[in-house]
Each structure stands twice: as structure tokens, then as C-alpha cells.
Amino acid sequence: MDVLKKVPVREQDPKVRATNFEEVCLGYNEEEAKEEASRCIQCKNPKCVAGCPVSINIPGFIKEVENGNHEEAAKIIAQSSALPAVCGRVCPQESQCEGKCIRGIKGEPISIGKLERFVADWSREHGFVPEAPEKTNGKKVAVIGSGPSGLTCAGDLAKLGYEVTIFEALHEPGGVLTYGIPEFRLPKEGVVQPEIDNVRKLGVKIETNVIVGKSVTIDELLDEEGFQAVFIGSGAGLPMFMGIPGENANGVFSANEYLTRSNLMKAFRSDYDTPIVAGKKVAVVGGGNVAMDAARTALRLGAEVHVVYRRSEAELPARVEEVHHAKEEGIIFNLLTNPVEILTDEKGWVNGMKCVRMELGEPDASGRRRPVEVEGSEFVIDVDTVIMSLGTSPNPLISNTTKGLDINKRKCIIAEESTGKTSKEGVYAGGDAVTGAATVILAMEAGRAGARGIHEYLSANE
Amino acid sequence: MYRITRKKALNPTVTLMEIEAPMLAKKAEPGQFIILRTDENGERIPLTIADFDRIKGTITIIYQVVGATTEKLNHMEEGDSLQDFVGPLGRATNTEGKKKVAVVGGGVGCAIAYPVVKKFFEQGTEVHAIIGFRNKELVILEEEFRANSSKLILMSDDGSCGEKGLVTDALKKLIESGEEYDEVITIGPLIMMKFVCKLTKEYGIKTVASMNPIMVDGTGMCGGCRLTVGGTTKFACVDGPEFDGHEIDFDEAMARSVMYKPFERKAHEEVCNLYKM
């Protein structure tokens, strides 16, 4: 064993997995997990913990894995995280815990995400369930949205004895875990549903098909339905488009639509009714995780897929592992390329995309080098389907229908970071609804902060 | 689950259903819609709210069998339950401050025009309803329209009922005869709405069209229902479904409406075959 290198994780062969929706990464077995855990040097002042948004006691759980005490390891993680099977799979570890690991200076960091995933999968397979409180305190809290922030907030409040009801607009709970991230990264029945069931086992009620702002308002929940506090975890689900000519042509989709059809509606399966236009030659515009998910979905539906991104590879915002997997599967990257027009045939269908070449100029306010158009570099990519993955913004439905709830210029709800407190009494918020599109783990951290804020608020009122 | 409390065939292809959904019935307004899913493997389809009863806690939907989901729906009976039923969605029709309006409905679109006509009539607006059908067999809600409008003109393509001709012929005649409307509201097939809007533009009468594009979530998160209105992209599910008819790019909307035609035909055939067995 080379202590400088991670114990490799078993994965489906790229040629095989490019044709199915099964999970790509197979995870560690007990032996591999133990070996990887033994690489951890158990720092006295662990930098990895500081790199984790919810500060999981990483050396603590890794020590238990090394000793084969998986249930103990699960309990340690459960103190900080409600969705370990999810986060072990989808966190950008290279910029969080693993990015801070001392082992990473000379060699490869400890595979913390894969070890967390191993513990979570082990506990699910061995029936380890979180303990529900013996009795409730009789106080009712409403949580809007059943994505990572809402689930975490609800789980934490239930553990403190609150009677929590989650209201979800779609017909399935999970938010982006259900409609956004595909099966091949995050299995729905195998991983997402059991983690949601764990939250239910804590006594949390989940009501689907309720659109807060339409079916019921926050003011009604507080004034008429007997809820004493509300947490808004409604996310940032509104897709952005480029505003270029031809964008409303047939065959142009938002990544949200494409992924919702495939993931939530299971359009990739023939026994479900929702159709999806697979496309023969697909361009995905954008470079984030959502772009990688959409590209790899289109590939699995049988298309040749191009990722079109205006900056260079170094600036791709997607997780390194996702980009690596996409390349292995045969996704073609057209970097430093920006679409300017979508071309259509006489029936209004996409038959090409006019692009320009870009070069990187001076760094902008965010520190990234700004892409600049190369004059006279127009060319056409021959595609029949375009998926726009340019980011999302919060849905204004809730802020428009709630009196006294302040939002900023980007339509994000203004809330205190440490407590989730908003401008309206009794209303707390967190996750993408506050920050704009970010990560699952940051949304969980915000859900945890919101639960803390609500608990302080409702305890002070006693 | 959402129970079907009443089912009634209005004509050979159009059916009315009352669904138990108290939370929705409390909030529903004319012009809004719902999204339903018949069963676990089903797709989400939007249907406009045709009526609601706040006391009974029911929502009325009226649908025409055109594809797999409406076929499945049509095989459900009173007492059966729908898997999902969510709403009310979209913006309600703005009826405020209008003294005299014309509502132009076509085919199954008349089911959506009816609650709008009713609301205008109940608030004391003078409302002229023009409803058009291909033939006598397909007429729906004639009595309801008659009881809730100041004037009703029934048109049919073949003259088998009412007057022979198109709804635009009737509207033109009314305008030419000197009727002055604050607004025209049109609900029906895209091609009909396009020509109603073209006509009223000539006379400079403000016109609102109720659009019915393909939808998935109905809450603004996918943009599948987007339209070009006045040169900018709008999402029908949250910004609409009603828009200024003189600003809508109808040709683009018509092209987008047939995007899934091949899938729909195949799926409908498969479902039909399923019920034959």
C-alpha cells in the first residue's frame, strides 16, 4: 500500500455505464474503508473539520472505521449531518474537507467523502436508524421545501421535540436530490428515499403538492394554521436563459426541465409516461455540476454530447470527479466557446448553434479571468438539441406573497447567517433561497442554523 | 390522493370531473389551473379550473381525450382517486374595472371561458359570450353560458347549430354593429386565438389570450412553458397563463405546442391497446 495515494474506489466501466443509469461509483467495502481510514494521521488540530461546513468530527469517525466500529462512526457523523449518504456522494470535497487534509500536501488527501459514504451506506444496510424523541413539546413549526436545507432543519427541530410539517410543491420530497441530481450519481430509491424516511422516523410530517404562496401563504400558516415559526428552504429553482436569438426553438431546454423529466418523472424509463427529447447531437451550455449532470444524462439517452463553456478547463465550476467521469464517458468539451445564436429549420427545430471563440482577459471582481470574445471567430456547431445550464435564481413566489419579508436585488431572502432570522418575526430562511444556487452541504448547514435560530426564538418566548 | 366525486360526459370526447381538493377549492379563482398526475407512473399535465365549490371543497376540470394521460383519466370513475392534484397555479383573470367585455371561446376552450364569463356576469359586467364548435355534437355548457351572459352567440363550422361560421365572423359583426368593448378575452385553439387577436388589433381593442403550452412542474422551475410576449421570454405558468394577445408570438407557440407530437401519438396508442386487452 502506498500511503501517499488514496485507496482506489471501484467504479462501473466507463463504456458500460455510459449506457445505463446505475450508480457510477460503487464505493468502498469494509476492507477498503479500513485501509483508507488507516492513512489518516489523526491530527490534533484537524484542518479537515474546519473545511467541512457542518464540522463533522472527521478524525473521530475515521478512527472508528479503522477499528471496525461502524455504528459508532455513524453516531459521530449523525451529530453533525442528517444526510451523510448524500453528502458523501455530492459534496465538492476537493474544496472542502479533503482540500484541507494535511496528507494532501505531499500526496493525495484522505478520501473523506468516500469514507462518510461508506459509513452511511453501512448503517442503512444494517438498519441503523436515528432515535426519535420520546415526546414532543407541542410547538408546531412549518418548513417550506423538502430539499437539503428543509430536511436538515426539520430533522434537527424534531430531535428537539418540535412538531414539524414540511410543505413540498412537487409530488416527491427531496428537492434537488430528487429532481436535479441524476440516479447515476445519487440513486433515488437506494439512497435518497431512505434518508428522507429517516427524517420521517424522527416524527416529521411531509405534505407534498402544497405550493406555499399559492395553495397557502406563510401568513396563513402563522395566523390561521397554528404554526409558531416557519423555515423557508425553497431553494433557487428558477432557470436562467441567455437571451440569444432562437432560444425558444423546439429542442432547446433548460437543464432544470431536462433533468426534471429524466430524474423526477423518470422519462428515461419506458414504463413512465413523461417523454424526453433525447437528441442525436446535444450541446450543453455551461460548466457547473448541473451542466455535467445534463450532459451525462443526454449521453445515456444515446446522444453525442458537447459541453460548451466560455472559460477554460481550470475555471470549470463542476466537481473535479464529475468532469473526470464525464470525459471518461466520452463527453466532448468545447472550451472558450460561447453561443451567440441558435439556428432553426423551417419547422422551428434546432439545427445548429452559432458560437464565438473566447480568450481569457483580466481577472474580474470574483477573481476569475474574464472571457473576451475573439473578433471574427464565429462558427457553427452542428447540433439538434441544446440544454441551457447557466444557473438558477430563487423563485419570487414566496417573497411576493409574504408581508414584511425582505429580499435583495437578486431576489434572495435576506437572513442572518448564524440563525437564519429574516426581517419577519418567526420566519427563518436558509439554503439557496438565501444564498442563490450553492451546494447541498451549505444548504444543510443553513438548515441547521435555522433550527438553532427557531429553537432560541421559541424558547425565549416561553 | 384526490377523490373523483363526479364524472359526466359533456359530449363524445369532452368530460367533466369534480375532484375533492379542499385546500385548492378555498383559493381557486377563474383563469387559474391545476396540475394532475393520474398514477405513480403518470406524467404531470395542466388543466384549467372550470369551476370550484368552496363549501363542498371540490374543483371541476373539463378535459378532452387527446393523449395517453387524458385517456387514462377517462378510464377513471367516480370514487377513484388521482395520485396528485396541485394548485391553484398561475395568475387569476383580471376582471376589475371592466364595464363591457366579449369572451370568445372555441371547442374545449369554452370550458375555461365559462368561469371567466360567470365571474364577469356575477360582478355586473356586461358580457357577450361567443362560443364556437366544429358541429352540434361537440357543443358544451350552452345552458350555463346562456344563464351567465348578457348575450350568447353560438357558432358552428358546419351550421348544424347556432350560426354557420367562425367565432371571428361573429366578433367582427358585433364590433361592426357598434358594440364597444373594454376588452376581449379569448380562450381556445392557438390558431383561433391568433386570428381573434389579429382582428381586434385592427380595431384597437385590448385583447387577452389564455395560453396553454406544454408544462412540467407549473411553478416556474423549468421554463418548458415559455413564450415570447412583446419580444421577451415569459413563463406561462407563473407570468400567465393570460397575456396581451397583441404581443404574443403565436407562430412560435404553435411550433412549440407540437414538440412532443410523435411521443404523444405513440403513447396514446399504447394506452388504448392496454384498455382493449
From TrEMBL, chain A:
GO molecular function, one term: oxidoreductase activity
One Pfam family here: Pyr_redox_2
Positions of the Dihydroprymidine dehydrogenase domain: 17-127
Domain FAD/NAD(P)-binding: 139-447
PANTHER family hit by this protein: GLUTAMATE SYNTHASE [NADPH] SMALL CHAIN, GLUTAMATE SYNTHASE [NADPH] SMALL CHAIN-RELATED
Protein name: Glutamate synthase (NADPH), homotetrameric
Source species: Lacrimispora saccharolytica (strain ATCC 35040 / DSM 2544 / NRCC 2533 / WM1) (Clostridium saccharolyticum)
UniProtKB/TrEMBL annotation, chain B:
PANTHER family listed in its UniProt record: DIHYDROOROTATE DEHYDROGENASE B (NAD(+)), ELECTRON TRANSFER SUBUNIT, DIHYDROOROTATE DEHYDROGENASE B (NAD(+)), ELECTRON TRANSFER SUBUNIT-RELATED
One Pfam assignment: DHODB_Fe-S_bind
Segment forming the signal sequence: none
Gene3D superfamilies per UniProt: Nucleotide-binding domain of ferredoxin-NADP reductase (FNR) module, Translation factors
Keywords associated with the record: 2Fe-2S, FAD, Flavoprotein, Iron, Iron-sulfur, Metal-binding
Residues that coordinate or bind FAD: I62, Y63, Q64
Cross-referenced SUPFAM superfamilies: Ferredoxin reductase-like, C-terminal NADP-linked domain, Riboflavin synthase domain-like
Gene Ontology process terms (BP): pyrimidine nucleotide biosynthetic process
Gene Ontology molecular functions: 2 iron, 2 sulfur cluster binding; flavin adenine dinucleotide binding; metal ion binding; oxidoreductase activity
Boundaries of every FAD-binding FR-type domain copy: 1-95
Transmembrane segment boundaries: none
Cofactor: [2Fe-2S] cluster; FAD
Binding annotation for [2Fe-2S] cluster: C222, C225, C237
Cofactor info, note text: Binds 1 [2Fe-2S] cluster per subunit. Binds 1 FAD per subunit.
Species annotation: Lacrimispora saccharolytica (strain ATCC 35040 / DSM 2544 / NRCC 2533 / WM1)
Full protein name: Oxidoreductase FAD/NAD(P)-binding domain protein
